[in-house]
């Protein structure tokens, strides 16, 4: 009898533990909706990110100046306005912040795509003065709206990854797993999207710009409906009012945060920045350089597809290398392999 009682007690304890874990976990329906939202947003971001480099060289084929200006404006705008958007996100209701960042980001991309489409169809306009205005103004409008889209794309990422996920998931292990799953979705979109965009651009620049415009219209509606559904059917924590620390209420640019960053993260951040300077990435300037040297758009997309596959392979290999070799050895090995691959590209 004692043995049976002790056995039954153990079973009860195990069942209670499982019930507590299930109660604290996020429902599968919410997880599926988050994954679907990430597929839509990542596909739009990755197709637009790659298409920007191709369209810029089509809009201004004489040189890479427009692509370089767009890259600089993107970086400067993100550095300046990201803290402002972050402070606003900290104080805003979650559904409002998602709606504002989503609609402004995709609205800016829609406007950029529209001006690109207008540029590629300018020869059909009979009015010479109007055609000249479109020829000169469409590339400028394209760059400006693309910069706005990039800034609010960062804001939308902050909303989902640094606010919504933390409010939805209370279990650190589940949060880590969900972040890894969403990251894999993003890498998969980053791998496949350039190939499709390169093929479309090879066929027709106007078709590419029109496709991006229509996709963002559909994607914006679908993403908002998904987030709205998650907001009203998800855990109560996502609908709770945020508690903002008093020291953050009136601050936009936090000098104390910069001081803390310089004291703890300056050297690692500087090292990462110097490493980034050695990376030959598929940004707008690199894509424009390849296109101006008679490399077809579809081939650029195929090469980017291969690069994305290596990126996915690298994320899986990193964990095993750290476990066997340690973090420092893995970092040094990655740096050496990076230089070994980049150096021949730069010397040729």
Compact overview of the structure:
The chain is built from twelve helices and no strands. With 348 residues, it is mainly alpha-helical.
Describe, in plain words, how this protein is organized in 3D.
There is one protein chain. Helix content is about 85%, strand content about 0%. The protein has about 350 residues and is mostly helical. The chain starts with a helix and ends with a helix. Mean pLDDT is about 80; it is low at about 1-5 and about 15-25. Pfam families: FPN1.
Descriptive key words:
mainly alpha, 348 residues, single chain, disordered N terminus, Growth Hormone, Chain: A
- Under CATH, the homologous superfamily reads MFS general substrate transporter like domains
- CATH fold label: Growth Hormone, Chain: A
Please compute the radius of gyration using only Cα atoms.
24 Å
Helix fraction, binned, reads over 70%
Shape: globular
- Quickly count the domains: 1
Please give the alpha-carbon distance between the first and last residues: 82 Å
GO cellular component, one term: membrane
Protein name: Solute carrier family 40 member
Function: May be involved in iron transport and iron homeostasis.
Pfam families: FPN1 (PF06963)
Question: How is the secondary structure organized here?
Answer:
Elements: H1 2-24, H2 28-59, H3 65-91, H4 94-120, H5 128-168, H6 172-203, H7 205-233, H8 255-264, H9 266-277, H10 284-292, H11 297-325, H12 327-347
């Amino acid at each position: 009898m004692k043995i049976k009682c002790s056995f039954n007690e153990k079973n009860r304890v195990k069942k209670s533990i499982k019930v507590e874990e299930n109660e604290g976990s996020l429902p599968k329906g919410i997880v599926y909706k988050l994954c679907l939202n990430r597929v839509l947003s990542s596909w739009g971001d990755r197709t637009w990110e790659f298409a920007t480099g191709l369209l810029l060289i089509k809009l201004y084929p004489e040189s890479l100046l427009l692509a370089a200006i767009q890259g600089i404006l993107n970086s400067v705008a993100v550095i300046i306005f990201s803290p402002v958007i972050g402070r606003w996100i900290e104080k805003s209701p979650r559904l409002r912040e998602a709606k504002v960042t989503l609609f402004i980001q995709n609205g800016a991309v829609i406007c950029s795509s529209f001006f690109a489409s207008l540029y590629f169809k300018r020869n059909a306009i009979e009015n010479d003065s109007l055609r000249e205005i479109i020829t000169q103004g469409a590339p400028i409008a394209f760059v400006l709206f693309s910069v706005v889209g990039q800034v609010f794309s960062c804001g939308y990422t902050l909303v989902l990854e640094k606010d919504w996920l933390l409010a939805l998931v209370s279990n650190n292990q589940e949060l880590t797993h969900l972040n890894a799953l969403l990251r894999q979705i993003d890498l998969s979109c980053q791998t496949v999207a350039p190939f499709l965009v390169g093929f479309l651009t090879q066929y027709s620049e106007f078709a590419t710009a029109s496709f991006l415009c229509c996709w963002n219209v559909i994607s914006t509606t679908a993403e908002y409906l998904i987030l709205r559904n998650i907001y009203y059917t998800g855990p109560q924590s996502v609908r709770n009012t945020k508690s903002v620390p008093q020291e953050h209420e009136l601050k936009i640019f936090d000098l104390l945060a910069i001081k803390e960053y310089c004291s703890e993260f300056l050297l690692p951040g500087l090292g990462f920045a110097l490493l980034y300077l050695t990376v030959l990435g598929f940004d707008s300037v690199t894509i424009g350089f390849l296109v101006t040297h008679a490399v077809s758009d579809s081939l650029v997309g195929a090469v980017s597809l291969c690069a994305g596959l290596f990126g996915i392979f690298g994320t899986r290999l990193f964990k095993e290398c750290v476990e066997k070799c340690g973090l420092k050895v893995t970092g040094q090995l990655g740096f050496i392999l990076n230089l070994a691959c980049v150096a021949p590209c730069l010397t040729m």
